[in-house]
Design brief:
Elements: E1 9-13, H1 21-31, E2 35-40, H2 42-56, E3 59-63, H3 69-83, E4 86-91, H4 110-133, E5 135-145, H5 157-177, E6 183-189, H6 203-213, H7 222-233, E7 244-247
Parallel strand pairs: 1-2, 1-4, 2-3, 4-5, 5-6, 6-7
The structure holds nicotinamide-adenine-dinucleotide.
Length: about 260
């Protein structure tokens, strides 16, 4: 991949620590020659993100809490001042109340439904609108989704409903910006042990289930998601938009538990 992203600049939103999917994507883009900017959510995470940014020589573009639109505006103004134009944006942001990522979807509260949709769905649209204004023609936007958008997964609940809406947003946004050659895609990642995932009930069981039943008989790493993101963010995928690309060891293709899968 060396040189694939030479001359390209982009912002990656959603690095919390070195286990974040966004970090896997940042590493892959940087190794391929891209100049990277990172955002962080609040002072506590800034301390974690700063050394990671240094590792890649990445630009610290600012605090961003997507519930406060002014912070998204500020990040994109900073990027415009620093670089003028950008070539790609990665949105790896989601949130729901942990108490509702267990048990029944039926019990979702109105407040948490609204907050989950705001942070996990609307934020991508808000980011895309601001990114478009400073994006070069032929740029690329990417978000992260999960199979719980397509099929019912235990405990994923309101987040599954949010991811379904996020995937629909990808298609609408792809049409809105397509006339400038800008592309909008999502990666549907298999389960990975991250900070956000630790809020999901029985997550270890879900990891094991995927390990036993996915065609590749294992889960995926943030580096693998990063490499697939590199394809979607680079000109290699210049004909691909509105797509939800699964990076899940093939799990989404399987219709039934493997007959030789051990009990968990
Ligand atoms: P993570 O905890 O490392 O990253 C989640 C990020 O969301 C954090 O950086 C956090 O700061 C950010 N965030 C949450 N609320 C925010 C807000 N209000 N404003 C700004 N940022 C906010 O976990 P991750 O698993 O790397 O998650 C990244 C994305 O990947 C999410 O969209 C998640 O749903 C998705 N995803 C994760 C998995 C998995 O199994 N880990 C699988 C498929 C998709």
């Amino acid at each position: 991949t060396s040189g694939l992203m030479n001359g390209k600049r982009g912002v990656i939103m959603g690095v919390a620590n070195n286990r974040s999917i966004a970090w896997g994507i940042a590493k892959a883009c940087s190794e391929a020659g891209a100049e990277i900017a990172l955002t962080w959510q609040g002072d506590a995470l800034k301390k974690r993100v700063e050394p990671l940014a240094q590792e890649l020589g990445a630009f610290m573009a600012g605090h961003c809490d997507v519930t406060d639109l002014a912070t998204i505006d500020a990040v994109f103004s900073t990027l415009e001042e620093k670089w003028g134009k950008i070539d790609f944006v990665v949105h790896a942001i989601a949130f729901s109340d942990k108490d509702e990522l267990t048990g029944r979807y039926l019990d979702t509260s109105r407040d948490n439904f609204a907050r989950t949709m705001d942070i996990s769905v609307y934020s991508f649209t808000a980011v895309a609108a601001r990114a478009e204004r400073i994006m070069n023609d032929g740029g690329s936007m990417l978000t992260l989704t999960y199979y719980g958008a397509e099929k019912v997964m235990p405990h994923y609940n309101v987040m599954g409903v949010a991811k379904a809406a996020l995937e629909a947003s990808v298609r609408y946004l792809a049409v809105d910006v397509g006339n400038r050659g800008i592309r909008v895609n999502a990666i549907s990642a298999g389960p990975i042990k991250t900070l956000a995932a630790s809020g999901i009930g029985d997550f270890r069981y879900i990891l094991k289930w995927n390990e036993y039943n996915a065609p590749l008989k294992r889960t995926v790493s943030i580096e693998e998601v990063g490499n697939s993101a590199l394809y979607l963010l680079s000109d290699l995928s210049s004909g691909v938009t509105g797509e939800v690309h699964h990076v899940d060891s093939g799990y989404h293709t399987v219709g039934m538990k493997a007959v030789d899968a051990p009990d968990i």
